[in-house]
Predict the 3D structure of the following.
Amino acid sequence: MTAIQSWTIYDLVDDWIHHSSIKPGNQILLFLLFVITTAGLMVWLTMQLSSFPPISIGVYVIMQPILLLVTIVFHELCHAYLILYYGGRPQFGWKWMKGLGPVLFATTKGYYTVQAYRRIAAAPLVTISIFCFVGIFFGIGWWLILPFVFNAIGAGGDLLSLRVLKRYPTKYLIEDTQDGFTVYSSGSGNNVSFSSN
């Protein structure tokens, strides 16, 4: 098995800055506009379908950091679930990353197909976004608007990974690292999963 390239979050950001057809600053603005517009739609739907929780604004505001923490944990659990699905053993941790601050992560040992790794990367954004939208129709939308925004912004590294992974053939293998991932051309080894499902 031959290593093609290793990517850290800093490499992903540099690649995005230097090889993007749209200036990264404009992409960030467009992404934030999309997130804010979607959050606005969620607020409007929530206002149509339910009343504000019968608590004081102060309690509601104090609860938001707790919801942020729950969202971060759930984000990593979504990664972990897909890691388990593909036969891996998730490991959790945190580290201080320059320019980012404290970062929680779910990682695993072994190798995944590009397709499987893309699904692992995309799982939190897709799952939590769907959960937040469905929650609106069950009357808990007021509690889910900010978690949606937190998660969408927090999925930036996952989105950068998905952008780079599009370049590689689906038969290539990906090894997760705490800082990013390494791409391998092919071969065999101590695999966790070679499944392309």
